[in-house]
Write a structure and sequence with these properties.
The complex is a heterotetramer of chains A (540), B (279), C (322) and D (495). Chain B is 75% helix and 0% strand. With 279 residues, chain B is an all-alpha fold. The longest helix of chain B is centred in the N-terminal third of the chain and has 37 residues. Chain D is α+β, with helices and mostly antiparallel strands and 495 residues long. The chains are: A alpha/beta (540), B mainly alpha (279), C mainly alpha (322), D alpha+beta (495). The complex binds adenosine-5'-triphosphate (2 copies) and magnesium ion (MG) (2 copies).
Chain lengths: 540, 279, 322, 495
């Protein structure tokens, strides 16, 4: 084997006082070899970014390496002066980040931001820099690179911005590219494109890539070698095949087991024939900007003639890319938003026409579970109050409402003592359980879960999904499950509706959608699921 | 709470500010005990310089009134005006901001135009006109200060409410059947408290400055001894009796400084984002 | 762009009319009327004399009629006639406006330049003693009552050291012309502009500092560092420009407010500006003049807001292109 | 020996609203426009008439006919000759319409005629003792007939560039900054004026005015320009002279209106108690820098027919308390309006409040601005209110107006604002005004002064001293009873 380009030895990074643990990275050792893609995986907070940032000398204030070394080109990066570090950055080691939205300066044109890389290292004339910028943009596959070069970041889509970031990173042909979750914020389809781009560029330029992710699907897609991190330590490392197929460490095994399986089984749908929710001709158009005096408004047809039926005890998945209108549909159903037209019949009554007290009454039977376990609970209310508030608003006495809250907490596997605590005293998964308990408090017949598990780590995701499935069974609930993650949809849904640009392009039983997609769009979506090929290969 | 205090006390300036303010408050409360005679009473020959007589350590003014006693009673007025007008401004600004932010649409438009209107009128000039029109008295001064200082509150609250309004827990509250009023009062406003407290602490400081400026221009309550009044009255004799404007000026400076320091401390302690930065 | 400006001007006109109307009623609600004041100043008066004055000023008409007449005039760019000064209000104001603008704009520039510079400096040394020193100094200026600082400045620099003139706009009677005159005015300007400027400096300093710190936490700064850019360039090109956005907004609000808010400074420094004019007009219930000053200072606020918005469009492409 | 040339730098405060003396007669206008416009006469310190536009005059035996002989070489500033027609126009037409104070005096006049270009004859309906006292520029300024006749006086554009006959003509007015007057070369008195120009500096802040003098920007501070506290300090400066002369014609007398109609102030004993409770000597020493005099009654000591043979109200809190006790004062709050003319008056109100508080009278100061103060007085909405008024040299012109019952009318603060009604006083004032001989008048005025001082319709405070401060090399600044207002005609600056 060749010599490593980057070699991290016994790295120890201390966190400031009062952090959740003493060391962000604790005695970590790994090598990065030329021409390979090394994936660092692990759950949020495990220290993946820290070790990478340390190699760039970009640790946050007050976070300091306290031990070990990072050898690049025979020298310990940690011992370099700031000036030497600056020479290294961008030229020998480049880095791209997770958030394409905020990783570019909003006030500078794309070409200027790319040209800056050359400027930083005193290379080329300004004219040449501009020309190179366009070449680079062409290389990363941005449509109309001339125009993109003159654009400001906000004028580009997320995927395009990520391409700009990559172009910037490639500018000086660095020996190492560090990619810190570069696709996490992107759609599956875009993610697939970016992964492919990175793979191709890596091969073409022969760089070493350190790829940080928490998604094993992505690992399967792209990695040559894998290092698994937990609580600041490497718990397992090896080639991609070794780790994925034959995980040794308990933690790795757990993580891999928690990944929802793609293949939807052809279940005997437990569907009662009685429809509980019937949606017909639903439309919603957003008009933004404009206002009293201002310029031309932006019009988005977010929900375009959507028809759905949900039967008792059934789980209907709504999937689609970001911005396809999934949430808008969900919000129209519970009337958090007024649809422009269409009917939403809940047990025969049209929700779309109700208002005032009648609407409040009708909403009792249709409740929602939200995406963000942090934002969906009022930080200033105790858990008991959060759950009891709904029933109390409908005239249940305080005592009874609290008694019921205790029962609900038990139902979602939480301690009854939780009623006297504040949300911030719970972990993400526990908070999501509280959110579920709150939704159940009004004894609804339909629950809408909008990205209810997207914000959770895989292992916790699995727990919550199990809980939902269990509750659905026990309480005979009908569930609308909104997600952009097809793996999750495959696992929990009886039927799936695929949305694109506000329209439902395909709807049918889950297994049919996955095994025999009818529309092109569905097919692209499915093909873009990371790790699918490997999984199929393993299965097949 | 203990946590809050810990974070607050990490800011040395804030602690100093709190100490100064505590002294000012104490002096204000104890003024009648420390100086049983009215501060208007002419007790010695006019223009007695400071430190000349033990009884009148800061000297006497143009009518032979005890300066230090005036300072003590002035603290009462300044704090009273500062606090009451701030509370009044909050009482105007919070509902307007909350309604505008929560209901949006034309209500927001109308309320914000209204707010903008008050921001367009030069505020100090408006305060002068209001006090002159309603005749200088502690009530009119407080009212005028409140009227010119509520718009920032409304804007702040509106901004906060606007972002809180789309928070998922507010939507959850809507779904659970709570009325708009309950939601505003129980879910939204409690979460705007931190920035409001920070703003309020700075508003008290501004109000004290405003009151003193009005008094300085002769628009103070003529029956109350206030710091601004003392400086205004001393301005004409600044050449022969510098201490008459110097001491009340320092008093205002320290009080306002203290409130600002406290405001910064509160900001650090209440704003988790800054706090985490571990400044 | 033109469309935007026209829209804004239309909106401004509505706000101005509203302000005038409100002030009209406010002022008329005040006890006392200009006829009585003028009669008072004349040293003697009888009912007939006052009635004469009231008729002359149109004060005998119903209030709403008076408002109508006034607004109609304003729409034709006629701000009416000052009762007491016996001159068109517009002339009086235009006479005084340059002095006010000179004072407030100088103060504004001082405060903005010093404030942002200090803010940048402090943010670059956050947590160090120089940061504390700068912040404390700024806070001290902010906490000092403006008029008091002005008094102390006059006492120190004008009376005690006799370095600078302590009041007025120029050396009256010196009859300087050209450059000599500009120099003379400049000397008179130093004290008032600095006291006013230092007060506002604190505001910009704090805002710049906070904004710089906030922006420096943003992701694109990390990107810039990852490129290997020098920290000076990062500060200037990436952090500073983004950090200035909120400062620009604030500056726009402040600059306008300054014009109407310089009453104190103008009083202490005997600066012949519209702040003082307003104060005098108020005491004398010179309705038209007072309304005129309000009109002009509110218009200033709106103009500066508009300038800010236009400026903002140049600085922030998100708004410009959208 | 007078020297020709030079400039006078004078403070003017507040800035006059207009310089057209025929239309506006407030203090600052009189001071500046007094150099531009002239009356027929001036008055010396003893209030004896001196020639101005009239070089001589005769009064008929019966006191009904006044004949004035005018200078024959007088020109207006625009070069037109000044004639008796201008006098008739000014007095009979223009000022009757615009000058409220003069209008009252002119009611005694039956006719004004001009037999020839340099003679004017005033015929009275009945004798009017003070008649010769109404001819100074502020009371009866001569305005140019050729400019104003047949025009709308108040909107005549010439008002902005006033044309008079005075020693100085209008040159420039930079609003908010300064007014410049220049020497009128064609002035009818040979060699006068001596000065080339007068700069009037508008400096609205009293402290700044003091600094202006100290730094040499101005050389003359007319009475009231600087705060009283500053007077001594400035007067002690090198080459600085001070005089309290030049106010005899005005005889400014300060008092507190006491509302005679209702409340505690309606009780004579209460009013007397107020007089005893006030330490007016302290007020003079602490607030007026020792200038001025404690007043003994309604007439200023510089005004004609003054007497000090009246009851004296010396500072005596015990007497005040006794009087309050006697009337059974129940501690009802009385509202006190200070005069909104600056710090001294504000302080004074505070001192009075404190004085009265010490004998048990509860005073609340109600603060208003100029307009509010005017209104409150005119509407009688007060209990006690500071003021000061001019006397114009004669009780019939400046004293009677405040005490006679026919002068009780809302809407003006220049009449009997306190609401005092006393038939005897009315009669005495009426007789005294038309009595022909001075002895007769003196007797009547003695009596009325004694009566008023017993009744205390208002609480007299001080005869105000408004010292004029100037560099000692400015000579002959104050030569008449009107002081600086018409002084610059004689003024010269010693080299
Ligand atoms: N700026 C910071 N200051 C202090 N502690 C930090 C900071 N950033 C991260 N940490 C802490 O360091 C630890 C490791 O963080 P790191 O960012 O490396 O995790 P990660 O594995 O990249 O997680 P994620 O998947 O969420 O990005 C965590 O405990 C985190 O709370
Ligand atoms: N309140 C709003 N105002 C204006 N436009 C909106 C609003 N909410 C959503 N949109 C637009 O409507 C379209 C559909 O949005 P929606 O949130 O329903 O998508 P989604 O499928 O839920 O996407 P995601 O997966 O990102 O949550 C998008 O183009 C979005 O920009
Ligand atoms: Mg990370
Ligand atoms: Mg969504």
């Amino acid at each position: 084997m060749k010599d490593p380009v980057l070699s991290i030895r016994n790295l120890k990074i201390a966190l400031p006082e009062g952090a959740d643990r003493d060391f962000a990275v604790d005695d970590v050792t790994y090598d990065l070899f030329p021409g390979e893609i090394l994936c660092i995986v692990g759950e949020s907070g495990s220290g993946k970014s820290m070790s990478a940032n340390a190699a760039m000398g970009l640790l946050p204030d007050l976070v300091r390496p306290v031990g070990g070394e990072i050898i690049f080109d025979g020298t310990d990066v940690l011992k370099l002066s700031e000036a030497e570090m600056m020479d290294l950055r961008g030229k020998k080691i480049a880095m791209i980040f997770q958030e394409p939205m905020s990783a570019l300066n909003p006030l500078m044109r794309v070409e200027d931001q790319i040209a800056e890389v050359f400027e930083a290292h005193g290379l080329l004339t300004p004219k040449e820099r501009a020309a190179r910028a366009i070449e680079l943009l062409t290389e990363v596959g941005i449509p109309d690179p001339q125009k993109a070069a003159r654009a400001y970041p906000f004028q580009l889509s997320g995927g395009q911005r990520q391409r700009v970031m990559i172009a910037m990173a490639l500018a000086l042909e660095p020996r190492i590219l560090i990619a810190d979750e570069p696709t996490t914020a992107l759609d599956v389809t875009t993610q697939a494109q970016i992964l492919e781009l990175i793979r191709n560029l890596q091969e073409k330029h022969g760089m070493a890539v350190m790829f940080i992710t928490h998604d094993f699907g992505v690992v399967a897609e792209i990695a040559d070698r894998v290092a698994v991190m937990q609580y600041g330590k490497i718990v397992e490392a090896g080639t991609a095949d070794e780790v994925l197929d034959n995980p040794q460490h308990e933690y790795t095994q757990k993580l891999i087991a928690a990944i929802p399986k793609l293949a939807a089984e052809e279940t005997e749908a437990p569907v009662g024939k009685t429809p509980i929710l019937e949606v017909e001709g639903l439309n919603k158009t957003y008009v933004t900007g404009g206002g009293l005096f201002f310029s031309k408004p932006r019009v988005v047809h977010a929900v375009n003639d959507v028809n759905l039926t949900l039967c008792e005890g059934e789980t209907l998945g709504i999937v689609g890319e970001s911005g396809s209108g999934k949430s808008s549909v969900g919000r129209c159903l519970v009337r958090l938003m007024q649809p422009d037209s269409g009917t939403v019949k809940l047990a025969g009554h049209d929700m779309a026409q109700l208002s005032g007290d009648a609407l409040r009454e009708a909403r009792k039977s249709i409740q929602m579970i939200f995406q963000d376990p942090y934002a969906s609970l009022n930080p200033r209310s105790k858990v008991g109050r959060i759950i009891a508030e709904g029933p109390m608003a409908h005239g249940v006495s305080k005592q009874e409402a609290y008694a019921r809250a205790v029962k609900l907490l038990e139902l979602v596997d939480l301690d009854a003592l939780a009623i006297d605590r504040y949300p911030h005293e719970f972990s993400g998964g526990q908070r999501q359980r509280i959110g579920i308990a709150r939704a159940l408090a009004l004894e609804p017949r339909v629950i809408i879960a909008d990205e209810a598990v997207s914000a959770l780590d895989v292992s916790i995701q699995a727990q919550v999904l199990d809980l939902l499935a269990d509750l659905k069974e026990r309480l005979n609930l009908a569930l609308i499950f909104i997600t952009h993650d097809l793996r999750v949809a495959a696992q929990i849904c009886d039927r799936i509706a695929v949305m694109q640009k506000g329209k439902v392009v395909e709807m049918g039983p889950a297994h049919a959608i996955f095994n025999n997609p009818q529309s092109d769009y569905t097919r692209t979506l499915i093909e873009a699921i990371p790790g699918r090929e490997k999984e199929l290969a393993a299965a097949g | 709470m203990a946590d809050f205090w810990k974070r607050f006390s990490r800011n040395r300036g804030a602690v100093i500010g709190l100490a100064i303010l505590a002294i000012v408050v104490l002096v204000a409360i104890l003024a009648p005990l420390l100086f049983p005679q009215s501060p208007w009473r002419m007790v010695q020959r006019p223009f007695l310089p400071p430190f000349a007589m033990d009884q009148y350590p800061l000297g006497t003014d143009a009518l032979g009134r005890n300066v230090i006693s005036g300072l003590a009673y002035g603290a009462q007025v300044s704090l009273l005006v500062g606090l009451v007008s701030t509370v009044a401004a909050l009482l105007i600004g919070i509902p307007i901001g909350a309604l505008a932010g929560y209901f949006g649409g034309w209500a927001d438009d109308a309320l914000m135009r209204f707010t903008e209107f008050f921001q367009t009128v030069p505020s100090f000039a408006l305060a002068i006109v209001l006090v002159a029109i309603f005749e200088p008295s502690i009530q009119s001064i407080i009212a005028a200060i409140a009227i010119v200082s509520w718009p920032p509150v409304a804007r702040l609250v509106r901004g906060e409410v606007l972002s809180l309004r789309s928070r998922e827990y507010v939507e959850a509250a809507i779904l659970s059947g709570q009325t708009s009023l309950t939601i505003i009062l129980r879910q939204v406003l409690p979460n705007t408290i931190s920035p409001i407290i920070v703003l309020a602490s700075l508003m008290v400081a501004t109000a004290i400055l405003l009151e003193s400026s009005l008094s300085f221009l002769g628009l103070g309550d003529p029956n109350l001894m206030s710091w601004g009044y003392m400086i205004g009255a001393a301005r004409t004799v600044i050449r022969q009796a510098w201490w008459l404007s110097f001491f009340p000026g320092v008093a205002i400076l320290l009080t306002v400084l203290a409130l600002n320091l406290i405001g910064e401390g509160l900001n650090d302690a209440l704003n988790p984002r800054l706090a985490r930065r571990g400044k | 762009m033109l469309r935007f400006i026209l829209m804004r001007l239309g909106k401004a006109a509505i706000i101005l009319i509203a302000i005038l109307t409100l002030n009209f009623f406010l002022i008329h609600a005040a006890p006392g009327d200009p006829a009585a004041v003028m009669a008072g100043e004349a040293g003697a008066a009888d009912a007939k004399f006052i009635a004469q004055l009231r008729e002359q000023f149109g004060l005998d008409k119903p209030l709403l009629t008076q408002l109508g007449i006034y607004l109609k005039g304003v729409l034709q760019f006629d701000l009416g006639y000052s009762y007491r000064q016996q001159m068109p209000v517009a002339d009086l104001i235009l006479d005084r406006l340059p002095a006010t603008l000179l004072l407030t704009m100088t103060a504004f520039v001082i405060s903005l330049v010093l404030g942002t510079a200090a803010g940048v400096l402090a943010s670059a040394r956050v947590g160090k003693w120089s940061d504390t020193a700068i912040s404390t100094l700024a806070l001290l200026f902010y906490a000092t009552p403006l008029y008091w600082a002005a008094l102390m400045a006059v006492l120190l620099f004008s009376v005690y050291f006799n370095w600078l003139p302590g009041f007025g706009y120029e050396t009256v009677g010196a009859n300087y012309t050209g450059f000599r005159r500009a120099l003379d005015i400049g000397q008179h300007l130093i004290l008032p502009a600095t006291t006013l400027g230092l007060f506002f400096m604190a505001v910009y300093m704090r805002m710049t500092r906070a904004s710089m710190l906030e922006v420096s936490q943003l992701d694109f700064v990390k990107t810039a560092r990852a490129k290997g850019l020098k920290s000076g360039i990062i500060q200037r090109r990436h952090i500073f420009r983004n950090a200035m956005l909120p400062v620009v907004t604030l500056a726009g609000l402040q600059a306008g407010q300054l014009v109407g808010g310089a009453v104190l400074t103008e009083t202490v420094f005997a600066w012949p500006g519209i702040g003082r004019l307003m104060f005098e007009a108020l005491a004398q219930r010179d309705y038209n003049l007072l309304l005129g000053v309000f009109f002009v200072s509110a218009a200033m606020v709106l103009v500066f807001n508009l300038i800010t918005d236009i400026l903002y469009r140049f600085v922030d492409p998100r708004i410009r292109v959208a | 020996e007078p020297v020709t040339g030079g400039r006078a730098n004078v403070v003017i405060q507040p800035e006059p609203p207009s310089l057209m003396l025929g239309l506006v007669q407030n203090g600052p206008t009189q001071m500046v426009a007094g150099q531009i416009y002239e009356g027929l006469l001036r008055y010396d310190e003893k209030l004896q008439p001196m020639p101005q536009l009239a070089k001589s005059w005769e009064v008929s035996e019966d006191g009904l006919t006044y004949t004035f002989n005018l200078h024959d070489n007088v020109k207006w500033h625009d070069g037109e000759p000044f004639t008796s027609a201008d006098v008739v126009f000014s007095a009979d037409v223009f000022l009757r319409e615009t000058h409220a104070r003069l209008r009252t005096s002119l009611e005694h006049v039956e006719s004004i005629t001009a037999p020839d270009d340099t003679t004017v004859v005033f015929k009275l309906k009945q004798p009017f003792g003070p008649f010769l006292g109404i001819f100074e520029a502020g009371t009866m300024p001569m305005v140019p007939k050729h400019i104003y006749e047949g025009t709308e006086y108040k909107s005549n554009p010439a008002n902005n560039t006033p044309i008079g006959t005075g020693p100085f003509k209008f040159a420039e007015w930079e609003k908010g900054s300064h007014i410049l007057l220049t020497k009128f070369e064609d002035y009818y008195e040979d060699g006068k004026p001596y000065l080339d120009e007068i700069y009037w500096h508008v400096i609205p802040d009293a402290a700044s005015r003091a600094v202006a003098y100290e730094t040499g920007v101005v050389d003359i501070l007319p009475g009231g320009s600087v705060e009283n506290f500053d007077v001594q300090r400035i007067a002690d400066m090198e080459n600085t002279c001070i005089t309290d002369k030049g106010w005899e014609y005005f005889g400014p007398l300060s008092w507190m209106w006491l509302n005679n109609r209702e409340g505690p102030t309606a009780d004579k004993r209460f009013r007397q108690a107020v007089m005893y409770a006030m330490d007016r000597n302290f007020a003079r020493d602490a607030l007026w820098n020792g200038l001025g005099k404690v007043s003994t009654g309604p007439v200023s000591s510089s005004t004609r027919f003054y007497t000090d043979d009246v009851n004296q109200y010396d500072y005596d809190p015990e007497k005040a308390k006794a009087l309050l006790e006697e009337m059974g004062y129940d501690g009802e709050t009385v509202r006190l309006l200070p005069l909104p003319y600056g710090e001294t008056w504000q302080r004074w109100a505070e001192a009075v409040k404190q004085n009265l508080g010490e004998v048990g009278i509860d005073v609340e100061i109600v603060s208003t601005d100029v307009a509010g103060w005017n209104q409150k007085l005119a509407e009688w909405d007060y209990d006690m209110a500071f003021t000061y008024l001019y006397q114009y040299g004669d009780p019939a012109l400046g004293v009677a107006r405040s005490y006679i019952s026919t002068n009780i009318a809302k809407g003006s603060q220049w009449n009997n604002v306190e609401g005092y009604e006393n038939k005897e006083v009315d009669d005495l004032f009426a007789k005294a005004a038309v009595a022909v001989t001075a002895e007769e008048r003196q007797k009547l005025y003695d009596e009325v002064q004694q009566k008023l001082v017993d009744d205390v319709p208002v609480a007299w405070l001080l005869e105000l001293g408004f010292p004029t401060i100037y560099r000692c090399n400015v000579k002959d600044l104050v030569t008449t009873a009107i002081g600086v207002n018409d002084g610059f005609k004689d003024t010269y600056i010693e080299k």
